[in-house]
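Problem 12. The chain below contains 211 residues. Write out its predicted structure in token notation.
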Amino acid sequence: CFDEAVMVTPNAPEGTVRLAIGFDYAAADRDMGMAAVLTAIEGDGDPLIYALDEVVVPGSASMQDFARAVLQMLRSRGIKWHEIDYAYGDNPVRTRFITSSNAELNRWLARRMQIPQRALKPLVLSMKRGGGQANAIRRTKDIRCRWMYGRIAADRVQVHPRCRHLTKALLEWDYGDKHPMKDVLDAWMYGLRDLWVESRSYDDLARVIFS
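Solution.
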């Protein structure tokens, strides 16, 4: 139900917003495997979700280059790292030469900002945190997608034209794990973890049917 003609707009939210950034790391053979999406959250009870900007690079990119691109994206929007309210990333991905992870990203963000890593706030945390929750972790894909579907259906999602990959993903993703546009969607929804994880219950979420 994503309507590009209506929901892709350069109009930014006004007033005080919360800022979320999410990260996804994928295998080196994925052309758009490393992704970050910056989102503004306006309001509390029925928030407006506004995707502001994105970074999408090949899965073979180094964490140093990824951190540099993320900070450049934030600077272009006039945002400092410490102004971010939520920062979440996926599980580590390891190849023969590169380890892509939240720990590595935190390390390179601190280096790029020339601050001690212990001074980096917020830290990029694991989206799939918490022990003893194997069933909950396995079903997070369904939960977050159904939550976001409900937001889109309620006309509470807007996407800036800068987010070309995210827009394409919203129009084309088929819910499959191998789809080339999946990683940018994961990054977007990881950053919003604290919103969808608080959904009242799994059964209350909108049901998504792909034809």
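Discussion. The two ends are 12 Å apart (CA to CA). Students who got a different answer should revisit the alignment rule from Section 12.3.
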